[in-house]
Design a protein that fits this description.
Shape: globular
Radius of gyration: 22 Å
CATH class of the largest domain: Alpha Beta
CATH topology of the largest domain: Rossmann fold
Structural class: alpha/beta
CATH architecture of the largest domain: 3-Layer(aba) Sandwich
Order of helices and strands: HHEEEEEHEHHEHEHHHHEHEH
Largest sheet: 8 strands, mixed
Length: 305
C-alpha cells in the first residue's frame, strides 16, 4: 500500500501538467470558435464611429425612452429592434453591444408607462409602441441620419417581447425576420384552466408599470386572448426566417408548438434551439449571443420589391 501511495505522489506532477495542457488546448479551441464580435473590439472608424443615441420616438403622443446603438461605418446597416419583456427586468443589452460590434444597429426602447417612458402601460399600448418604433426606423430622415437599411430589419424579443415580435411580424410584412427568446404566448396562457398558477407574473410586474393593476392587465389579456395567441400567426410567418430560443421555463411548450406548426406549414427557415437554463438565460448569455450572431449571419438577402 505504501509503495502504491508513493507512485501516486510521483506521478501527480506529470498528470497535473498534462491536465493543464489539456485545459489550455480545450480553452484555446473554444476561444477560436467564438465570434469576433464577442471577444474583440473592432478598429475605430474615425469618420463614422460606433456610438449610441437617445432619439425621441413618439407613440400616440407619448415619448418613449429609447437608446439607439449605432454600428461603425458609413454604409447603411441592417438593424435590430430589440424588445424587452414584462416588466423588463432583463433587457439583453449585452446582446445589443455584441450586435453593434458585428455591424448591426440596435434600437432598444421602453413601452409606454415603463422605465421612464411617458403614458400608461397596457399590452395594447406596447403593441402600438412597437409599431411606432418600426415606423421610426423606416422614416426617410432617420434612415439617412442613423444609416439604416430599412429592408434589413429584424425584431428580437424576449418573453413578452417575443410575443410582440411575432405579433408585429404577423401584421407587418416589412419585418425581415424575428427572434423569439423564451417567448410568452400571452393570449393562450390567460385562456387556459391552469392560468391561476401564472397570475404571479401580473402581480409582480404591475407595481413597476405606470397606470396598471394586475386585475386590469389580466382582464385586457383575456379580452384579447383569441388574437394574442402566436400559434395563430403561423400562416403570416411561414415565409420568413424565425429563430426560436427556448429555456427551461413555463413557455417551452408554446415555443415548441410554434416551431412544430411553422415546420408543418412549410417554413424551411425556422430554427429552434433549447438551452438548459432559466427564463432569462442567466448562465448562457454567451451561448445565446453565439446562436443569434450565427443565425443573423446566415439570413437570406431580402427579396427585391
Amino acid at each position: 500500500m505504501a509503495q502504491n501511495h508513493a507512485m501516486k505522489i510521483k506521478l501527480s506532477p506529470v498528470l497535473a501538467l498534462l491536465g493543464v495542457c489539456l485545459c489550455i488546448g480545450v480553452t484555446g479551441a473554444r476561444a477560436q470558435k467564438l465570434p469576433a464580435a464577442i471577444t474583440t473590439d473592432p478598429p475605430r472608424d474615425t469618420s463614422f464611429p460606433a456610438t449610441i443615441e437617445a432619439p425621441d420616438i413618439l407613440s400616440h403622443g407619448s415619448r418613449l425612452n429609447a437608446v439607439f446603438y449605432l454600428a461603425a461605418g458609413g454604409s447603411a446597416h441592417p438593424t435590430v429592434l430589440l424588445l424587452h419583456g414584462f416588466p423588463g427586468n432583463e433587457q439583453n443589452l449585452d446582446l445589443a453591444y455584441v450586435l453593434q460590434r458585428a455591424g448591426w444597429n440596435v434600437l432598444f426602447f421602453h413601452y409606454r408607462g415603463s422605465w421612464g417612458s411617458s403614458g400608461n402601460f397596457t399590452f395594447s399600448n406596447a403593441l402600438e409602441d412597437t409599431q411606432a418604433a418600426m415606423d421610426f426606423l423606416r422614416d426617410a430622415k432617420n434612415v439617412a441620419r442613423y444609416r439604416i437599411n430599412p429592408k434589413r430589419i429584424v425584431v428580437i424579443g424576449h418573453s413578452m417581447g417575443g410575443f410582440i415580435a411575432a405579433y408585429t411580424a404577423a401584421h407587418d410584412p416589412g419585418v425581415n425576420a424575428i427572434v423569439m427568446m423564451a417567448a410568452w404566448n400571452l393570449g393562450a396562457v390567460v385562456s387556459r384552466p391552469s392560468f391561476s398558477e401564472r397570475t404571479d407574473s401580473f402581480v409582480n410586474a404591475s407595481p413597476r408599470l405606470a397606470g396598471t393593476t394586475p386585475e386590469g392587465l389580466i382582464a385586457e389579456a383575456k379580452a384579447h386572448s383569441a388574437e394574442w395567441d402566436y400559434i395563430d400567426y403561423v400562416n403570416q410567418l411561414k415565409t420568413r426566417p424565425v429563430l426560436i430560443l427556448e429555456a427551461n421555463d413555463r413557455n417551452t411548450e408554446d415555443n415548441r408548438a410554434l416551431a412544430e406548426n411553422l415546420d408543418k406549414a412549410g417554413n424551411s427557415q425556422v430554427t429552434e434551439k433549447y438551452f438548459e437554463t432559466d427564463h432569462t438565460f442567466s448562465d448562457h448569455r454567451i451561448a445565446v449571443q453565439i446562436a443569434i450572431l450565427d443565425w443573423l449571419q446566415h439570413l437570406p438577402a431580402p427579396m427585391a420589391k
